[in-house]
Amino acid sequence: MTGSRLWTAGLVLLAVYVKVAVWANDGDAVFIREFTLIRRDHLPEEPLHDGSQKPEDPSSRTARSEEDRDTLWDAWGSWSECSRTCGGGASYSLRRCLSSKTCEGQNIKYRTCSNVDCPPDAGDFRAQQCSAHADVRYQGQFHEWLPVYNDPENPCSLKCTPKGSDLVAELAPKVLDGTRCYTESLDMCISGVCQIVGCDHELGSTAKEDNCGVCNGDGSSCRLVRGHYKSQHATGKTEDTVVVIPYKSRHVRLVLKGPDHLYVESKTLQGVKGELVLDKSGQYHLENTTLDYQKLSDKEVLRMTGPLGADFTVKVELTSGGDSVVQYIYYQPIIHRWRETDFFPCSVTCGGGYQLTSAECFDLRSGWVVVDQYCHYYPENIKPKPKLQECNMEPCLDSDGYKEIMPYDLYHPLPRWESSPWTACSTSCGGGIQSRSVSCVEEDMQGNITPTEEWKCLYSPKTAILQPCNDFDCPTWLAQEWSPCTVTCGQGLSYRVVLCIDHRGLHAGGCNPTTKPHIKEECLVTIPCYKSIDTLPVEAKPVWHKQAIELEEEVSVTEDPTFIPGPWQPCSKTCGAGTQQRTVKCQVLLSFSQTVADLPDDECEGVKPASSQPCYRTPCSGGLGRGGSEEEEEEEEEDEESKTPQREELHDWEYEGLTECSESCGGGVQEAVVICLNKQTREAADQSLCVSSRRPPPLLQDCKTQLCPPRWETGEWSSCSATCGVGLMTRTVACTHRPSRDSNHTAVLRDEDCQNPKPSPIQACNRFDCPPMWDTHDWEQCSQSCGGGVQRRRVLCKQRLSDGSILELPDTFCPSKSPANQQPCGKQACPPQWVTTDWSQCSVSCGNGIQTLQAVCKKQGENGQYWTINPKNCSMVAQPIRIRPCFPRHCEIADSLKPDPTILAQRKVYIQWRKGKKVHLVVGGYAYLLPWTTVVLRCPTRRFRKGHIQWLKEGKPLVNLPHLSIKSQGYVKIQQLHSSDAGIYTCIAGQAQEHFVLQIIGSKQKLSVPESWLLESGQNKARRPDVASTVGRFQEQAISLNKYDNLVEHLLELKGSVHIEKYLSDKPLSSEKNGSTLEDERAGEELSIPVLLIADSHRLDEIMHNLSEGLEAPRGEQLIAHLLSELTMTEGETNESTLHPPESAESSTQGPLLYKPNIKSHTSRGRNPMIIQRPKKVGVVPQSQMIVYVGGPVLLQKPVATLELRCEALGDPRPSLTWTKNGKQLHFSRRVGLLPTGSLRIQSPGKGDEGLYTCTARNRLGSTSLSSWLHITVFSGGKGRSCIHSDSKGGTGLFCPVRSNSSQSAQLCRGQACPLRWQVDAWSPCSATCGGGSQSRNVRCMKGSEGSLKEVESRQCLGAGRRPSNTRLCNILPCGRWVTTSWGLCHGQCVGPSLATRHRYVYCQDKNGTKIPSRMCFGLRRPSSLKNCSTEACALYWHVGPWTQCTATCGRHGFQSRQVTCKHHRTGKATREHHCMWRPRPPSWRRCNILSCGRAGECQDSTRYCEKVRQLELCPLPQFKSRCCHSCRNT
User: Fold this and answer.
1) Nearest to residue 1458, comparing CAs of 1474, 1476, 1445?
2) Cα–Cα distance, 697 to 525 (Å, whole number)
3) What's the distance, Cα to Cα, between the start and end of the chain in Å?
4) How far is CA 193 from the centre of its chain?
């Protein structure tokens, strides 16, 4: 009992269902499925690394992201199940590090899940975790634990307190994942760490709810309500209503100050009422809303975070005493909102119309549509404007019963906003306003524009009618610095330039002239001026003396503005009284420039000296003339006096800005610009209108003194690269910088240091057309490398134009003679070469066949023609392949003829080499088996059911015995083979039969044909010829039933030597064995020795044919030993498949195991070399060539050009081949050499080449050899024959070839015994190169031996066969040929899915490349000029949209439409419809609701949108009025 208690104390009871536990890097449990039972002491402190975790399914991993590919991490795995089922939990994803090094970053990531509210009865998640410890003793006692919330130090630890106690205990260091950190927050504890969770339930998100409870909202869905209430006890009430707070309000706060008390009433949307009395501080719950109430000594505070679950009415219970004041604040949801409706029905059924939307006011709480006044109550609500869109754009069909002519169709634009030009801005600067008029217009088919109702344009925003303008600052006066004082001592003047600067920083007009700062001011130099003082002032002298002094006195210009009079002009009268004139200017000496400047008169102090005075020279003789002159003089004075003041008053000099700086950087100078200004108009005037004496002095100032930044420095342009057409000139462009103004050094910088754009380093030049000239291309490759060929090139007349393009012109445009376009080449003589004829027709009309190719040694002459020469001349050139497989078509069998069944027999001889449990055999051969062996004899068939196979033994039906049974699959199984089981087994499948001879090793019984067959053969010949022929054929082979007995007996005698030499020699040494026992070695030996030796019967027949001396002779023993070596080598590779054949063994045949060995490479261990022996002659070869395989005798009875001895070897490693002749190393020459395959080739073999040729295959595991005796024989007569020696192991033996057909053996002859024969010469060249020509040759009758031929009369050769032809047709193809251009781009018409067409030109041309009429190519197959091509552009389909709602509920006008567009599969973009026309276009509209609407005269609505039509005032439109007759009747 005590142990049980201790075990229980170590448990944390979280639930009864264990789902998943995942361990993070820190070793703690990250996720434990909610409601989990887990022992606390089983929470490991280290991560699991024992591999006991279930490996993750690789298919659950996502593809690696671009970020993961740059790191060493694998892709993230799938997300785990959520840690909670509600209330917000956490899920994780893992990834593994693909490197042995440490990967940067975390191997686990989290996300939130199950973000749905838990049911009210689910309880708090932290409280559940605390209550789970109620059955665990704490300090020896059981407690009912309550959670401790909002721990400031560690909010993610499980701290609980016993009920009714102040004790706080930490029951777990971490709460379960998904537990809230704080009660008023979405932040979540994950792996003991508080993670930030936004209102969008995303980890790490900073999204917050606005005051309206909308995540990331802008607060526009609610409004702030503030207010206060004051109780009035004088009314005599016991209670009063403070405020009614509507459903879904948030952040409610009420503060009552006074003696009264608060209480709350609720009313749900369903009308259920509730009441809550607040008697003490704490949390209360009412209608799924939490209320926090605090009752203090002087006030009460009520808070509700919300959203409220009902309409709350806060009331106050009035008590005796003073009045109370309640202040409240809350956010009230805008419960009535505008909602845009769907589009109304289209204005027309076809031909293009429009449709509109509207807006309706609805209640957020109930979802019902209410009257618009509810939405107008909230100023925040803005009613959406109607939208308009095109609809029913399909053209109307002729068969369409309902047509309505509307002003909008396919070619008619929608109504649009039209605006007039903007008016002039109200101000020129400083911000103004300009306006324009905007109206809704529509355009008809003729382009006439007329105004229309504005609602038709409300589908798009109305353009603005007011806009701000000229919002830049007005120009302001900007005064420059003062110049130095004009004097060096005393009082002088300073000047400055005043500019009018606009918002762009430029000097411009527009400033107020009345606010212009002055341009001069007095200045005082604190240095006294010293002047000589005259003893008598000028004023004290007599008048005449004063005048004399003034005439002589010269006033010099000083730095003080002074009136400077000029010299007096001569008197206007030569006699009598007259006047004198002079100029008087206010001038000043500018010390900084040492120049004299004219100033206005008001700048000089004192009285301006007189500019005129009377003068008198001598008295006149008469008074008349003097008087007249006085009148004129007075008039002139008046005119002068009247002009000067006016001129000075209207015009004056003014500084008008500054000139541009003389340098852009590095220090320059700019001068003040002086203009003559009209003071009234403030416009510039001619300088002659201003008084020159008042012209302000020139002012200079420094500018752009900053150091120059890096700048582009360019060099001189080079000469033009072309004399015409268009050439290029280049120059150097470098980024340079001068460190200082006074420095002469220039540094070259990078191009990036200078501002763009960089000056161009190239420019075009000589841009005028070149004269036409010849353009020659490169010479093409010679048409023939030898024997005389032609080399061509293209020569064109071209002209390079001034735009750089090249124009191809006719040859007559080029002045000089055209260069040659072809020349001879390849004049050297061609070496002899093999020339092949065409491939022959396939040897079969269906199935697998062969084609042959004749190769003839020819030489090409200078005229390009070939003539046949001796094949010896081509001996150094490899002969081409002379045979190839062909497959015209699959063989087909007529439907009316049922194919006969066949048995897939195998001509094999099976020899059991050691005891085995079971052997598998196939009919068609022989088997020599050990007794007590289990045999499975199969009969594989084709086109025959296995269950219908019949078996015979000794010609009698085979019956089931205790140890012998015929299976339903058609095979025979013999358990524990007895001597009585030997015999002839026959498999019958329909008309097909195959036999199998089974003999028991050790039995002396000789098999013979059964007597029943001999008796039945005569009877069956009459009625069953097929069976009779089968029996007869077996009777002929009766003598061969035991023909392999002696050979098998000798093979079995060599069993011991094979064990020792072959298998035991391959075993590892004792030092290499690792504790193997003797039994293991014996078992290994038994497994390595094959159970069956399988030989091809043809191979054994050949061996027996070569054993003419008998099996006991040394030659026979060598052949048998070699045969055994081959069999054991091959069976090492094939034995496994023989013991356990595949399922498809019955439907396929095995080829000869010796002649077609398994070439499959073995990597487990090496293989000794083995030479493959094949039939001695090879297929179809030219008569001048002979190919034989080594291993058999080679007899040459007539001369040949080439003899090839082939030697094919297998082994691992691949063996190397060497050749010997008569036991000595073979010496190679140009005539005798090796081919790349290792075979031996002898050209023009003669008597000297006779001998024993041996091929040796050798690798590191051993070697093997195979020999052939080459004998060249010549018959002196027709009957004698010679025998040759053949040896495969170096032995000797007699072999005489059997001549089965003497006519095929050519005889060498001498003298008169030689026969007569025809001899032909080479064909002459063809008389025409194309279009049909002829060739001829000489045909002569020859007699004599090969060395002494002589021509005789032709009639003597009449008995030697048909005379060869001496003429034939040649070059019968037409002279023209079809020529095609390259295929064009795949841009044709789409003809199918992803299919288009492409084109090319096809024309007929002759051999010189000239285009000729197409009839010249008649008879030749014309290439196609059009073909299909694949293109992504035609991956198109018809995309259909959903059907619209029917436009009417009854009548004849109801229809519904849908949008049908031609779209691209991948991009989804729409394209022209004709690209999809290869597939029928789906219909885009159909009629609907064709129902009677009642009586004809009844006025009723036929669409459910009529209320909206009336609200939008659409009833005046005929199409709406007719369908909404009832709704529009009073409008």
Assistant:
1) 1445
2) 20
3) 94
4) 42
Give the type of residue at 1335.
Q
Tokens of 712: 């582009």
Contacts of 886 (CB under 8 A, 6+ apart): 842, 843, 844, 848, 849, 850, 851
Using CB atoms within 10 Å of the CB of residue 336, give its burial: 0 to 12 exposed, 13 to 18 middle, 19+ buried: buried
Contacts of 1053-1062 with C-beta under 8 Å, sequence gap 24+, read: 1054/1120, 1054/1121, 1054/1124, 1055/913, 1058/1124, 1058/1128, 1059/1085, 1059/1089, 1062/1125, 1062/1128
The two tokens of residue 125 are 């998640």
Instruction: Give dist(CA 1103, CA 1124) in Å, integer.
Output: 12
Angle CA 381–385–388, to nearest 5:
155
Residue 490 C-beta-side C-alpha neighbours within 13 Å: 10
C-alpha–C-alpha distance, residues 56 and 208, integer Å: 37
870-876 contacts, C-beta under 8 A, 24 or more apart: 871/1184, 871/1201, 871/1202, 872/1201, 872/1243, 872/1244, 873/832, 874/832, 874/833, 874/834, 875/1201, 875/1202, 875/1231, 875/1243, 875/1244, 876/1230
**How far, in Å, CA of 837 to CA of 21, rounded?**
80
pLDDT along the chain (1531 residues), means of 10: 36 31 36 32 36 43 58 85 86 86 84 83 85 85 88 89 87 88 87 88 86 84 87 77 90 90 88 87 88 89 90 87 86 86 80 79 83 79 79 69 38 76 89 90 76 79 87 87 83 84 80 84 81 42 37 64 87 80 86 74 84 76 46 44 48 83 82 85 84 82 83 90 85 86 79 87 84 89 83 89 81 84 85 79 79 79 73 77 77 58 91 89 93 94 90 91 91 92 93 92 78 56 45 48 83 62 38 39 52 86 70 67 73 44 36 33 61 61 76 81 87 87 85 87 87 90 87 51 38 37 37 68 83 84 77 81 83 79 86 87 84 77 88 89 80 76 88 84 81 66 73 75 80 72
Which tokens belong to 1250? 């006779």
Rounded to whole angstroms, the Cα distance separating 598 from 1130 reads 130
For residue 515, what are the contacts with CB-CB under 8 A and spacing of at least 6?
477
Contacts 24+ apart (CB under 8 A), 709-718: 709/665, 709/737, 709/754, 709/755, 710/735, 710/736, 710/737, 710/749, 710/753, 710/754, 711/735, 711/736, 711/737, 711/754, 712/736, 712/754, 712/758, 712/759, 713/746, 714/759, 717/763
Please give the Cα distance from 361 to 372 (Å, whole number): 5
Cβ partners under 8 Å of residue 58, min gap 6: none
Of 82, 86, 83, which Cα lies nearest the Cα of 120?
Answer: 86
Q: Decide: 485 and 559 in contact? Cβ < 8 Å.
A: yes
**Cα dihedral value 344, 345, 351, 353, nearest 10:** -20
Taking the C-alpha atoms of residue 311 and residue 1491, their distance in angstroms, rounded to an integer, is: 49
142: number of CA atoms within 13 Å, CB side?
Answer: 8
DSSP H or E run through 373: helix 372-376
Q: What are the b/e assignments for 853-873, b being 16+ CB within 10 Å?
A: bbbbbbbbeeeebbeeeebee
* pTM score, whole prediction: 0.30
d(CA 660, CA 664): 9
Q: CA-to-CA distance for 712 and 758, rounded, in angstroms?
A: 7
Question: What are the residues whose beta carbons fall under 8 Å from the beta carbon of 536, sequence distance 6 or more?
Answer: none
State the Cα–Cα distance between residues 1182 and 868, nearest whole angstrom.
15
Q: What is the DSSP string of 1079-1095?
A: HHHHHHHHHHS-SEEEE
Cα–Cα dist 917/330, whole Å:
96
- Locate 274 and state its tokens: 């509730």
The answer to whether residues 1496 and 1442 touch, using CB atoms and an 8 Å cutoff, is no
Task: Determine how many CB atoms are found less than 10 A away from the CB of residue 401.
Answer: 11
